[in-house]
Amino acid sequence: MPKDKTTPIRNWNTLGMRGTASEGYAITDVFVPEAFSGTREDPTLRRDRGPLYAFTTQGLYAIGVAGVALGIARAMHEAFMALAVDKTPRNMARLADNPVVQSTVARHESALGSARSYLVDILKECWAGADDIEPLGSAERARVRLGCSQAILASLEVADAVYKAAGTSAIFLGTPFERRFRDIHTLSQQIQSREAHFEAVGKVMLNGDPENTFLG
């Protein structure tokens, strides 16, 4: 039997998002003919048509990361509301009776809901406008990136605030907060979470996009 030329690379030893197992592999002594190669970012090489394939791969990655971020932040937000009903810190009133906490909970609900609705509206409009021939245009790609970046940023801000507000209830292993805190901060370091995306979108909005930003 031929020797297996594929070697797994066990290098996903991270702070969070450990369940994704985003590891690599190496292949030796393998030749790939040009006819069987290509870049997944070139929309002219699409083999299938339809609205889904009008989106770039990186755009779909961004949508997925934004969805995970919103889910993590939402779970932390709801866990904190449950905690606030029961927790009475030393020398303080019950968290749920604290006007600052009440205001914070409402602001977090608004922030997450707004970010999600904004992204969903963008995706609905882009999907409705996509055709079977051309990929999404520059303006649409920039809008997708902006909606995803805003969702990730809003989620991170809510998660950080919730972690702080939960006090020591958030620091122990197995709480509803600690793993999600690690996960969202691992997510926030990924390429899809760069705040530089806001600069790139603003550049497209003000100056057009001769460089085909967000195509790859």
CATH architecture of the largest domain: Up-down Bundle
Q: Trace the largest sheet across and list its strands.
A: 1-2
Count of individual helical segments: 5
Q: Give the SSE order as H and E letters.
A: EEHHHHH
> Which bin fits the share of residues in helices?
40-55%
Instruction: Work out the number of β strands.
Output: 2
- For the record, the count of structural domains works out to 2
What is the alpha-carbon Rg in Å?
A: 22 Å
Identify low-pLDDT runs. Answer: none
Distance between the termini: 40 Å
What are the SSEs and their pairings?
Elements: E1 6-9, E2 24-27, H1 57-86, H2 99-129, H3 138-165, H4 178-187, H5 196-207
Antiparallel strand pairs: 1-2
Helix pairs in contact: 1-2, 1-3, 1-4, 2-3, 3-4, 3-5
Gist?
The protein is mainly α and 216 residues long. 51% of the residues lie in helices and 4% in strands.
Description:
It is a single chain. This protein is mostly helical. The protein folds into 2 domains: 6-44, no CATH class; 50-207, Butyryl-CoA Dehydrogenase, subunit A, domain 3. Helix content is 51%, strand content 4%. It has helices at residues 57-86, 99-129, 138-165, 178-187, 196-207, and strands spanning 6-9, 24-27. The longest helix has 31 residues, at 99-129. It starts with 5 loop residues before the first strand and ends in a 9-residue tail after the last helix.
Key traits:
flat, mainly alpha, single chain, Butyryl-CoA Dehydrogenase, subunit A, domain 3
